[in-house]
């Protein structure tokens, strides 16, 4: 998802994270209004996890780790997300 890539690259490049997070928020809000948008929700969660991991914002990271597990429990497979360090960390936090 282009929004996730742009947001994470922007933050990793040292830019203010607020605009990147606002972009992800808009994607997340739109995906919540569409029950069939589980892939979009997954991409947004991955973006949040990567950004908050990079920034060291552990409370925010834990909140999105929980969202990742909730998405998995709803039947969304996480195969495409596994292997990324921030995803593996999130999966260890939230049983």
Order of helices and strands: HHHHH
Tally of distinct domains: 1
How far apart the termini lie comes to 26 Å
Over all CA atoms, what is the radius of gyration?
Answer: 12 Å
- Major beta sheet summary: none
Structural class: mainly alpha
Regions with little confidence, pLDDT below 50 for 5+ residues: none
Q: Please work out how many helical segments DSSP would assign.
A: 5
| Total beta-strand segments | 0
Helical amount: over 70%
What average pLDDT do the residues reach? 92
| Bulk shape | globular
β-sheet strand percentage: under 5%
Write the layout of secondary structure elements.
Elements: H1 2-12, H2 17-32, H3 38-55, H4 58-73, H5 85-93
Helix pairs in contact: 1-2, 1-3, 2-3, 3-4, 4-5
Describe this structure in words.
This protein has 95 residues and is an all-alpha fold. The chain has one domain (2-93). Helix content is 74%, strand content 0%. The chain has helices at residues 2-12, 17-32, 38-55, 58-73, 85-93.
Task: Please name the defining characteristics of this protein.
95 residues, 5 helices, 0% strand, 74% helix, mainly alpha
